[in-house]
Design a protein that fits this description.
This protein is α/β, with parallel strands linked by helices and 501 residues long. It has 14 helices and 22 strands. Helix 4 packs parallel to helix 5, helix 5 packs antiparallel against helix 9 and helix 12 crosses helix 14.
Length: 501
């Protein structure tokens, strides 16, 4: 765990074992680092002129025992080009700072660059992003790596980080950003933890138990519906996906009441496929282990609900998670089957690997009873979205442009970006079926769009947005694991809604 605080004073006089300053490209120094450079007689400038640091946000430089500087160590991290310093670069610089601290075995430091100008970022946002990045950088997955029975996932041993400002009048604003950054960082780490768990541990019932555990420690009410109750609700497409699994489907409902009962809620719906084999339309073996990440939409709802409750946001939120496995079995749905959804409309199953939209459509129908101000679903829905946008931006679709604009802006502020794709009527015809009201897939082209078109047919009663996080929910390679997106975007959106209410 990391403890955060805010301190004031001139950088050379700060009484910390370590000070972390910034360096711009082309050997430029931020204001906060200039004070250090002057105090030590230009030692920092000399090292930069010698090209010991290029200002890249991935790089750091450690200086020891600088003259007239109280701190024993000074870590310089890159901030890129001065005119290009944005929220994304600031997050990366904070991550680099934390890793440099860990390499030096330093557990007490002051960060100077919260005062620097960052494009489109207030002081609160800068503090939030620095803290959020450090909280996330301290996360390690240990649940299944220790041999002892005491194995658990936890963050690094406790460290102390202070955000330093020169003007005392800024302290309260920075403290607010620190509080927000801790909540969002912890929410993202919860999302990452759930995503990283193996599918034999993170089952639908496990998600239910975690939802109840969150409720015990926060102002959240959790209700779990079992398969018999889900059947009574008429969620037949949801249950059709679960039919091939021995694990019972669960519908998890989390309610956070931060505003009056008359205030219409924001509903968050997360795709909770705890393992996706593709069903009868079996996936290729390559990378199938990653299908444990197919519940990252659900995990992002958990993380966002946690952050909202910890921040005590003045807003009402309902989190819905339809959770099940998609496996082949003699009872599993087959290509060509026709299933009636909760809405009463029928769906021809052309591909059992297009299962996420089948559980989401029933959840979207169920959401209408809450008379929501907005509904946002989050899902690792389509490989087509990965083909379109890669791994940097989540795909965004909406039936209300004002909602889309709010989410896009929130993603920019949170450094958790999305990109809007169209929902034109011309794409709807790809879902035509000779045997049902609609097919569950629309052919080989525009797969992310036709999937969103399918969902849009169940959202006529309220403003709705769909986040396709198939390309952003996890990483491959040496840093393989869940990313915690889109907790930052969603929490930023909710914080803004709470301020306006």
């Amino acid at each position: 765990m990391t403890e955060f605080s805010v301190c004031t004073g001139r950088a050379p006089a700060l009484d910390f074992p370590c000070i972390i300053g910034g360096v711009y490209a082309d050997a430029q120094l931020p204001r906060s680092t200039v004070a250090l450079d002057k105090a030590c007689g230009g030692s920092i400038s000399k090292r930069l002129k010698a090209k010991d640091h290029d200002g890249n946000h991935r790089n750091s430089l450690v200086l020891f025992d600088l003259p007239n500087v109280k701190a024993e160590r000074v870590i310089l991290v890159g901030l890129g080009k001065k005119e290009g310093l944005d929220c994304n670069t600031l997050r990366k610089a904070a991550d680099t700072a934390w890793r440099a601290m860990k390499n030096l075995d330093v557990d007490n430091a002051a960060v100077l660059f919260v005062d620097e100008e960052v494009k489109d970022a207030t002081l609160e946002i800068k503090a939030r992003l620095i803290v959020e990045s450090i909280v996330e950088a301290g996360y390690r997955f240990r649940k299944s790596k220790l041999k002892s029975g005491r194995s658990s996932s936890r963050t690094e041993p406790r460290a102390k980080i202070a955000l330093a400002v020169t003007d005392r009048r800024k302290v309260k604003r920075v403290e607010q950003g620190v509080r927000q950054g801790q909540a969002i960082g912890e929410g993202r780490n919860l999302t990452r933890e759930l995503g990283n768990l193996p599918a034999n541990v993170c089952t639908p019932s496990y998600l239910s138990s975690r939802a109840k555990r969150i409720a015990r420690h926060s102002n959240i009410k959790t209700t779990v519906f079992d398969e018999s109750q889900i059947k009574e609700l008429g969620m037949r497409t949801f249950l059709a996906v679960s039919a091939g699994s021995r694990k019972s489907a669960q519908l998890i409902q989390m309610e956070y009441a931060g505003a009056s009962g008359k205030t219409r809620p924001v509903v968050l719906i997360g795709k909770g496929i705890t393992f996706d084999s593709g069903g009868i339309s079996l996936k290729p073996a390559d990378h199938m282990d990653e299908m444990k990440f197919d519940m990252c939409g659900a995990a992002s709802v958990f993380g966002t609900m946690y952050a909202a409750a910890k921040l005590a946001l003045n807003i009402n939120i309902i989190g819905l998670v339809p959770a099940c496995e998609n496996l082949p079995d003699s009872r599993a749905i087959k290509p060509g089957d026709v299933i009636e959804s909760m809405s009463g409309r029928t769906v021809e199953i052309l591909d059992t690997d297009a299962e996420g939209r089948l559980i989401l459509c029933d959840a979207l129908t169920y959401a209408s009873q809450f008379k929501p101000e907005a509904v946002i679903d989050i899902a690792t829905l389509t490989g087509a979205c990965v083909a379109a946008l890669g791994h940097h931006a989540s795909g965004l679709f909406a039936n209300a442009q004002a909602l889309a604009d709010d989410l896009l802006a929130a993603g920019e502020r949170a450094s958790d970006r999305a990109w809007q794709l169209p929902l034109w009527d011309e794409y709807q015809r790809h879902l035509d079926s000779n045997f049902a009201d609609m097919a569950n897939v629309g052919g080989s082209s525009a797969g992310a769009i036709t999937a969103a078109c399918f969902l849009s047919r169940f959202t006529k009663d309220y403003p709705w947005a769909h986040l396709d996080i198939a390309g952003t929910a996890w990483r491959r390679g040496s840093k393989k694991g869940a990313t915690g997106r889109s907790v930052g975007l969603l929490t930023e959106y909710l914080m803004n809604k709470a301020e306006l209410s």
